[in-house]
Amino acid sequence: MDKVINGEITFMNNFLENIDKQIESNKGKNIFLDQPGLLHFIRETVEAISKLDQLSPEQQRVLIDYAADKAHEEFCRVNQYYSFGAESKKALRDVYADLLASIQQKDQSVDAISENHYKKLKSWLQEYNAFGGKLYENAGPYIEPVACSEYSAALQLGILAIDPRSLMQPVLDVGCGKEGNLVKFLEKQGIEVFGIDRFSFEATNLFTGDWLEFDFGRSKWGTIISNLGFSNHFNHHHLREDGNYIAYAKAYMDILHGLKPGGSFYYAPDLPFIEKYLDTTRFTLKKQEVNQYDFKSTVIKRLG
Question: With CB atoms counted within 10 Å of each terminal CB, which end of the chain scores lower, N or C?
Fold first, then answer.
């Protein structure tokens, strides 16, 4: 029995590893560029296709979810300003479910299946992040990722002018990054701290999610922090013609309402276009220059 189970695990892992290789093969390629053969199934994928019928329905669902999650991570790596909510993620999963169905129908060549799949991926990305098409349609076959750095805890605390000893708990880092550097640092200081980002995490205090859909609660957090994260994206959407600035404005208010009385929201860069509407009977606002940077950091404190 153990041999059978181990064999099934190995068989499934081979499919998952193949997905990783396929994603890696297409890494950095411009999906908006109509160049025949640029995006294609690698040899391992073609070989795996012939074995898909050996998977159970449950294994097929796992495969679809895994492929969709990996594709989502890759799109986020290419451009940190791509925004994906529950609806777009479901639609992405449907793209991969359609791919599996096309393979099982066996009425098309592998090349035709591959071509149709990437056309669907392109249409999906165009629908939910139309600015990407405008940005990359005239670019070359390979595109450089939009910079998205994992900043050290010390740098973040310096930019935001935070003394960890003064933080009201619990603390939430919005856009904590894949490594959760600030969360880990504060945790070592004995602080009750959590983080949220769109990556997959194993740590129980790091949440996988979209900050536009996250439930910040009411009067729940002593401190909310976001360094070059939420406000950076809010500003980006504010300046874009097709930006989702209304959803960001709502999330901004949700964050403020999520603060406990006396709690604070630290972020950079500052957001003067919305900060001017702050209710000064409920919140105080303080800004400061950040050395060597062309933006300011902001701390908003909820009054008791």
Answer: N
